[in-house]
Amino acid sequence: MLRLHLVLLLSFTVLHTSLAQSDPSGKSAVTRTYAITNATVITKPGSELKDATVVIRDGLIVGVGQNQTIPSDAEVIDAAGLFVYPAFIDGLANTGAKRPENLPRPQNLFTPDPPNDYAGITPENSVLSQLDVTSNTIGNIRKIGFAISHTAPYGRMLPGSGSLILLKDAEHMDELVLAKDVALYAQFVGAPGAYPGNILGIMAKWRNLYRNAVQHKDHVALYAENPSGLPRPVNDRVSLAFHPVIDQSKAVMFDVSSMLDVRRAMRLQNDLGFKLMVAGVEQAWDIMDELKETGTPIFLSMDLPDAPKENKDDDKTDEVKALEAKRAEAYKTYVSQAGMLQEAGIKFGFSTKGTSNSKIKKNLMTMIENGLSEDAALAALTTNPASMLGIDNVTGTVEAGKMANVLVTTAPYFSKNSEVKMMFVDGDRHDYVVKEKKSKDASEKDAKPSQATVDNSDPIAGEWSYALITPGGEQNGKLKFTKQGEKYEGVMTFEDGTPDTDLNNINFREGVLTFDVELDAGGQAIQLVVEGKVEEKSMEGKASASFAGQSFQLDINANKDGK
Amino acid sequence: MKIKNILTIVFALFSTVVLAQVPKGDLLIKGGTVLTVTNGALENTDVLVRNGKISKIGKGLRAPRGVETVDATGKFVMPGIIDAHSHIAGSAINEGTSQVTSEVSMEDVVNPLDVSIYRALAGGVTSIHLMHGSANVIGGQNETLKLRYGFTNPDDLRFEGAPRTIKFALGENPTRGGRARGIQPQSRMGVENMLRNSFTQAVEYKKKWDAYKANKSARKVAPEYDLRLQTLVDIMNGDVLVHCHSYRADEIYMLLKVFSDFNIPKLTFQHANEAYKVAPELAAFGANASVFADWWAYKLEVYYSTAYNAAILHNAGVNTSINSDSGELIRHLFHEAAKTQKYGDLTDDQALAMITLNPAKQLGIDDRVGSIEVGKDADIAIFDSHPLSVYAVPLMTFVDGVKYFDKSEDRKDVRLYINPEAAIEDVMIYDRHEDHRCLEDAFLLTMEDLFSNKK
C-alpha cells in the first residue's frame, strides 16, 4: 500500500518536472533581461538619477545610468514617472516558516531539566526545516517592497538558526536560500509549565549551556589533535551548535522588544563574549549609549503603538488630563525613537516580525513625520541590514553587479499615495495592480461594489460576536475581519475596556479559522492562540492561552453578526 | 591572543566601569536629631556628606563651598531603612518549574521601572533584598539593591559589593508545588531529604572538579559544568548567604541540623513565625531571623504566632530584623519596628536596628549601611517626628547623599515607562462610608469574623 503510494508520488514528481521545463502554463518569463527606462532611480540612500535606465539580466543588475545600451533581448519597461529603489531587507521575521506542531507533553516533564526539545533548546535546528515554499507570507511581504528576509524558526528559547531567504516564488526551498544559518536565534520564551519557565531560568540555562559548549569545543579540539588516551567527546548537538558562536563566526540574534530584555541580552553577551545582534526592539531610547559603545547591530520593530485617543468628556478631571498628556508623551517617544537613533549616529535596520503588513508603510511614514529622514529610513531598509547581515557586497543598492532586487513605485516611496507597481527579486519580475486614481467616470465606479462594503460571500470577513469562557466568567466582544487581497486582517475588541488588539497570523483553511492575539496583562504578555471550526455563521473553538510560562485552554465561541 | 581581542577586552572592561557610575552626593544636614542606631540619639547635630559617604558628625559643622545644606531643625535623621525581604522591582519572582533552581538569579530580572521603588523611598527605605519566591525548596539567588529610582539600567540599582545570597523555602509552599506535580517534596520530610540529597550531590560535584583542577596534565577533559551544583558548592564554601522561608519551629530546627551536618555557617530564617520557640538554638548556631511584626493566620502553618516574636528573639541574642515582603508594608516599616516597643519593650536603638543595622548584618552590608557613622554610605531618611511615633511622616530620602525622595517636591505621577496603548482609568480611593450598612452583622459569622481581632 505504502509502496504504491510512493510510486504514484514519484511518477507525479517526474511528470511535474518535465512539464515545468516546457511550461505549457505559459507562466514562465519569455526573457530574463529587462530594461527599466526613463525612471527616477534611487541607487542608494541619498543618491538619485533622473531619466535613467536599469538593465537587468539573469538575476543581476548589469547597468544603471543615463546612457545605457538596451540589450536586444531585453523587455523594455517604460518607467517614465516611476521610481526605482533597491528592494528592502527584513532584519527578522518568520516569513515562509511554518509553526511546528506542539510536542506531546513528555513523561519526565518535572525533572529538573526536561528534554531539550520540550524545553525549547534546539539550537541545532535550521529554519530551512520549517520553510514552506507555498506560504503566502512570502508573496505578501514582497508586495510591500521586501526582497530578502532574515527568517527565524518558530520555537522557544533557542529555536535554531535563521537564514536569509529570497522572497521569490519557487518550486523548492533551496531556490530561496541566499545564506543558510546566518545567526543563532534566541528569545526569552519559557517552556510551558517546565524548566526553564521564564526569564530567570532562561538566563541561567544560557550560561550553563554556553559554559559546557566551551568545554565541549576544547575537548573536541584536544581529541582531534590526538585522541589517544582521551575519552571520546559526545556528539552533543546542542554544544556543537554553539561552536561557531563561541569562535564568533556566527552571531546570536536575540529577539527582544523591551528595553530591559535588550539589556538582558547584552548582559549575557558581556558575560559570555559572543557576537550579539538584537531585533524586534521597541524601546531603544534609553540604551543608545550602550548601543553606540558596543556597536551591537540593532533591528527596530516596525510595529508602533496605536496613537492614544483622548477622552472627549468635557468634565474630565485634571488628573485624567495629566495622565493623558503623559501617555501622549510616551507615544511620541515610541514614534520618534527611529529619528533619535539616526540623530545619535546609530546604524539600525528594521524587523517586520509581529507587525501587520498593512501597517508597515504607515508606520514608516509615522516615523518620518517624527524625525526620521527619508534617507535614513531607506538605509534602514536596504544598506544597513545588508551590511549588518553581511550581504552588502551582493545586494542593498541598485548598482551594476548587484543582485536584481529592485522595487518600482508609482511615486516616491515615502509619500502617502505611493504604490508598489513592480518588484524584481533575484531577477524575477512581479507586477502589481495599481489602484486607479479617483475615478472620473462615476458610472464605472458604480458598476463595481466599493471596497468598503462587506463582502457577504466571504465566510470570515465581517463582524463576529465572541464569548471567551474563562475561569473568571465569560468575556465578550467583537472580532472584526476584513479581507485584503488573499489575506485577512482583524481586530479583537473587548467589553471590559481592554483596548482593541490586532489579530496576527489569521488563516482560514478547510473550514478551520486560526489566529493569535497578544494581550497585555499588567505588563506581562498573554498569548492567545485560537483555533475554531467555522460552520455557516458560527465558530466553535479553543483558545490556548500562555502566560508567564504557564498555559491552559479556554473555550471560545463566536457568531457572525448581521442577517 | 591577537591584539584586537586584547583591545576589545580592555575596552569592554573600561566601558563596564563607565556605565556603572552612579551619582554620589555632597550635603550638609543641619541641626536635626540624629538617630545613629549605634551611638544613640544626638540632638541638634549636623551630618556632613562628601562624595556619597558620611564624612563628619558633630555640632556647628559648616558646609564647604558649593555643598547644599538641608535644614533638619526639629526633624529626625535616621539611617535609611533596609528591607531584608522584598519582591518589588523584579520582572519575575519564581522559577518554580523545578524544585532546585540555585543557578537562577534575581540579578538578571531587576526591574528599575517599578514604581513601587519610589513608594518605598517615600517610606524612608534605601535598600531592599530583592528575593526569589518560595515556590521551590532551593530557589534562586537574590539581589541586594539600592533604591536609585529614575535610572533605567538595572546595574545602576545594584548594591555594589554586597555578598551573594540565596532563597530557600520550607513548609507549605514548596510541598504544594510538589503535590501539584506529583514529585518530591510532598511533605516536610521530603523537603529535608531534598536538601540533604542536593548538598550530597554538590559534595560529589566539588570532588570531581577538585580532582580536575589538581590534575597537572595538559591533556585533561573538564567534567560537565553545572551552575546549579556549583552554586550549592559556593554556599558550602560560605560565599553565599542563605535566607530561608520558614514558619514552624520543627522545620527551623531541622534546617539548623542540616546546615550543621554540612558545615554551612551563614543562615537567616525569613518569616520564622515560630522562631521564638527555638530562640536559644538559633542563637547558639549564630543564625539570624527576619520576621513580620504582627502578621499571621494567612495559612495553616502561620497560626501559631506572637507579636512578641521579634523581642523574644532579640533578647535571646538572635540578630533579628523586621521585613515587609510587600509593596505596601514596605512604606511604613518604621511603624512595624515601633510595634516591638509595644510588644517587648525594646529601646529606641533596638527597635530602629530591626529595620536598619540588623537587616544590614543579615545581608552582609553592615560595614556600608545600617547606622549613621563616619565612613558609612550616606543612605539617610529624614522624618518630621520620631520615626517610632505613629505620627511620623518621612520627608526626604537620600541614597549615597543623593536625594531620591522629597515630600515637598512629590510629583503625582512618577512612572518611568508608560504603555501608550493602556486605558486611563479614574483613580478611586475606596470609601467605606458609601457601603450599604442596613444588613451589617445580620449574617452568621464567617471564618474571617471568627479569627478577627477587631472586636
TrEMBL record, chain B:
The keyword Hydrolase applies. InterPro entries: Amidohydro-rel (IPR006680), Metal-dep_hydrolase_composite (IPR011059), Metal_Hydrolase (IPR032466), Metallo-dep_Hydrolase (IPR051781). The keyword Methyltransferase does not apply. It holds the Pfam family Amidohydro_1. Residues 309-392 form the Amidohydrolase-related domain. Keywords: Hydrolase, Signal. PANTHER family: ALPHA-D-RIBOSE 1-METHYLPHOSPHONATE 5-TRIPHOSPHATE DIPHOSPHATASE. This is Amidohydrolase. It comes from Roseivirga misakiensis.
